[in-house]
Amino acid sequence: MTADRDWSRWLQRNSAHGISGISWQLFAWRVLFEARIQALRPRLLGWSGFMHVFRRNSKKASVLALMGVFTLLAAQSADASVPPQAARDPLPQVSCGWPAVVNPSRLNFAFPETNATYWLMPYRLAQGDQMVVDGTYPSARFTSLTSYDVKGSPIDSLADYKIAPSQGSRNPFSDPNAGTNSAQHKYKVTLKAGVAPGSGGNTLAGTSMSAASGVGILALRIYVPDQTSDPAGSVPLPSLSIHRKDGSVRSISTCAKADSTQGPAGPLVGFLRKLVQDNAPPGGFEGCGKSSVQSPGFAIPNKASGLFPNPYNKYLCTPISHESGRVAVVRGKAPTFPNTQLGQSVLTKTQLRYWSLCQNQWQLPYPASSCAADFQTALNKDGRYTFVVSTPQDRPANATTTNRVTWLSWGPTNVSSILLFRNMLPAADFHNAVQDVGKGQNPASVMGDYFPTITYCTKAEFEKGGPDACPAT
């Protein structure tokens, strides 16, 4: 009631007057700003405090000015069509779909895989909103959709085989009779706020802690497309649309060149690089167990938050450092995989869906220097691999696929490096994958022959005696 009397007295005094020397918009902003400053004091501002600020700024304030203040306050608080975080979320505004494309030839950050491409789409979901993803299963080894928070940590994910096809279509990642007609390989996934991860029914949780509204980043991954010249897997990128609570629908056109092998990385480059910088250190990528560049050895990463991890991969890593005339040698038994490059189906019974070894720079923003995927790796008659990591100048003459050796380029030598060993989607009856290593367990004990070993040796030693001249210690 006190507030009502205050309001009536103020209207009687000021309704006949206008604001002198300042437009009502500027006046409203000024009052709002001072009110917010006042609100930071130990006690709440309250109506009386608000009126005090208003009176102090002008004796001739108009009703129009006050209405302007209320409009601004309402826009900052109660508008259900905008997520509460929208006014302060760090996501840049984008005007088209899939505006960031991550791979080493375009945007190289957060330990990317050279045989995969990652498309990123920022989103804002108010209460009751949905983002609908209408897509076609790609001709590729693997695909997935994953929602992340604005720190690059996963919220929810759907792998290819878990995405149910649309009516009249079939999923080639789960149905052996799906055929090759992409017109019959359609799916629809809905990204929602306010649902729990793993809800099923082609639904992705879009907000952490099942919040009713919020912001995030949707990632589309495609690994090893059948046609390497088409990173999208010979199908269009999924179309995107926002479905509002009020029933309105806004379609989002795909960004130009988003599905090309080259071209601009997209308008999110600065935001994404800053995201990695802000969220990786000091609690981001902290190394690999107790391994060091002086004494390398593959171990489970200590921590890798803020780096958009793939929920369907598990990793081993080791730091290494360059010395002129020295090479790093990695050896182990290769898991079997569906060689889709040779026409095999992903449904072929194998031990892993995919594996690879990548050489990465251990400095922000953690770019990849080189990778070798399973299908690019030379094997000896016993199904074992040997990788040699070196500069071109230090590459041993016998580090060739003819000699059953796969060479990886070291990349920059003025920084330390990280080797990442990926394992994806192990078969239920394969128990020697990185995924089988429990907390506190020794990976070498769990993985047996499939555990990768590493040692340093000189170029001359390798050239003289081959891999056996460089045994792991």
Q: How would you characterize this protein structure?
A:
Helix 2 (24-39) packs across helix 4. The strands form four sheets. This protein has a five-stranded antiparallel β-sheet with strand order 1-2-8-4-5, with no helix packed on it. The model is unreliable at 1-87 (pLDDT under 50). By secondary structure, the protein is α+β, with helices and mostly antiparallel strands. The termini are far apart. It has helices at 2-14, 24-39, 46-57, 63-77, 269-279, 443-447, 459-465, and strands at 100-102, 116-125, 130-136, 140-148, 154-159, 186-192, 203-205, 214-225, 239-243, 249-252, 313-320, 326-333, 354-361, 368-373, 384-390, 406-409, 417-424, 453-458.
